[in-house]
Amino acid sequence: MAKVAIKVRDLRTSYGAHVVHEHLDMDVYEGEIVGVIGPSGSGKSVLLRAIVGLKKPDHGTVEVYGEDVTGLEGDELREVQTLWGIMFQDGALFSNLTVRENVMAPMREHTDLSKPFMRQLADQKIRMAGLETAAGDKFPSDLSGGMRKRAALARALALDPPILFLDEPTAGLDPITAGAFDKLVRDLQQSLSLTVFLVTHDLDTLAATCDRIVALGDKRVVAAGTMDELRAMDQPWLQEYFGGPRGRAAAAGVK
Ligand SMILES: Nc1ncnc2c1ncn2[C@@H]1O[C@H](COP(=O)(O)OP(=O)(O)OP(=O)(O)O)[C@@H](O)[C@H]1O
């Protein structure tokens, strides 16, 4: 059985009186793409933020490759941050920097590499993400939505992390662009042996890319398994999600 890359145990998070997660347990195995689904507001993005140290849990632990990373701060957090790249929902690119400078930003923060070498590496990541090298000179505002996502993916790959977090990577893309992005994620995961934590609402993305799906609800994980296993579960939200016309269409095209 594959090794556990990310292990979350008894997680509790909250904002004031609003409890987002309670007694949440989750495992992500090395080398898999796990899709995290659940109703709007069920805490998918907050879970991602809690794992990467951007949201401090009230309780519980997060281990990455067996190391407890819960509540790390300062240099300790900076050190473990090289284990993962994150692509946020809106891309979160620095609007005043070119694409190349955006991709170089994590390198500047975490390495002592020379500037020419960083440029070379950044251009390599830009091409890996399916953009022309010339896109490196452009500012995020000069790019289409699909290109911005690719630029954000290039930045997430900047430090060659073994783990990738993607928050709604295909949101706002037309179906063809979204399909191409799904394929890119799958291809990169395979060629780089990445472990991918992917938050999505997109049934086509789940069908095309994910090895396993974890569903959130009632502040915790309510189901985990393959798409077929989840579709067969007697859980009202899952039934509605997979059983609707969009769910049936995605299932018909399952990989
Ligand atoms: N910074 C914040 N301050 C207060 N409440 C927050 C904050 N961030 C998230 N929340 C709350 O936490 C809950 C979970 O939010 P989260 O963004 O994780 O949901 P989600 O499952 O990703 O939803 P969606 O599918 O709509 O993106 C929501 O009720 C949200 O309002």
From TrEMBL:
UniProt source species: Henriciella mobilis
Domain of life: Bacteria
Domain ABC transporter: residue ranges: 6-243
Entry keyword Ribonucleoprotein: no
A molecular-function term among this protein's GO annotations: ATP binding
Protein name: ATP-binding cassette domain-containing protein
PANTHER family membership: PROTEIN TRIGALACTOSYLDIACYLGLYCEROL 3, CHLOROPLASTIC
Signal peptide (residue range): none
SMART domains documented for this protein: AAA
Alphabetized UniProt keyword annotations: ATP-binding, Nucleotide-binding, Transport
